[in-house]
Amino acid sequence: MFPTACRLAAKPPGFFKRSAEEFSRLSRIAWNTEALSTPTKPYHLLNFEDESSVASCKTMADRAVGGFSTASIDYVPAEPSTNTPAHARFHGTISTKLPDNWRVERTGYAAFRNQDRGLWLFGRLYWDLDPYTYLALRVKSDGRRYTVNIQTDTIVETDIHQHRLYTRHHHVRDSEASSSYDPLSPYSSPEAAESPEIAEEKYPTGIPEALSDVPPPSTIMSSMSATTSGSTGWETILLPFNAFVRTNHGLVAEPQTSIIRQRVKSVGIGLTDRVEGPYDLRIHRIWATNGMSEGEIEEERRICGTAALPVDEGVRRNWVAPNEDEPQKQEKPEGKAKGLKGLRDEWD
């Protein structure tokens, strides 16, 4: 396949541009003294309104081991008439057909992530997400059970921190999803129903809340209980960084460790539900945040409609208690002497 002129124009930034952008970002932080307080503005990781962000992503599927699943990520221009922003379309087909290779026992997966961010003047470039609490994603889902993947600079390079992407359109299997099969459900299949032996191997201490098929109450999903009627299909999902689960080759790794937020290498989304058929996920942006700010709410309401998240009160007040918004005025004591005599009176 030969690169087209459009694809070449949308190529990822080079070494000097990466260095200039990182210098600019760090300069803004220093100038605004943002490092001395909790950030209230979003830190965009992948902004798919920019076609170069789509070009900087890579796809993966079981075709690498001889499988038949497909994965593509394309840039979709904006449609102002429907308030649809420019975004990336992650789509393809999942197949659980096994190749003619006795070494391959399971297929049926597809994923995408950003490519390594490369080098800049001071070494390898990482995202420093330490000041942030949530990973935010604005998506339009077809309801399939996607997983968000974060990879950091760790000793074990194959370690990935994962969290299920719960949306308002999320299809839930039966309560015993790991071992049951509903023949009437279009999102369930004999191949997707895992045997107890496989489930025990993947989750030796039980299925973690963040990877469960049912959204846990501890996960911040304020739009989960709302109806989907009247919405645009777009929604913003907030996933707490401390809720991600460390995995290795699809198995939960022990002991569990927190994400090294200072050295994040890549962010992506995968589909491993092993349900035969097409999938289609639209992604507008992926960013780190401490909550929805007033500056973001206009875009949030325009794109997400009735599914828009509210402004986070903590972000609005910069995490100052309501009774501390205004500094208390100290009343001057009456009859207090001035100068050295007044200072002597205070010590006495």
Automatic annotation (TrEMBL):
Residues 171-199, 315-348 are annotated as: Disordered. Coiled coil: none annotated. One of its GO terms (cellular component) is mitochondrion. The keyword Chaperone applies. Residues 47-171, 231-283 form the NADH:ubiquinone oxidoreductase intermediate-associated protein domain. Residues 326-348 have a biased composition (Basic and acidic residues). Pfam families: CIA30. It is found in: Mitochondrion. Keywords: Chaperone, Mitochondrion. GO terms for molecular function: unfolded protein binding. Residues 178-196 have a biased composition (Low complexity). One of its GO terms (biological process) is NADH dehydrogenase complex assembly. The keyword NAD does not apply. This is Complex I intermediate associated protein. It comes from Aspergillus mulundensis.
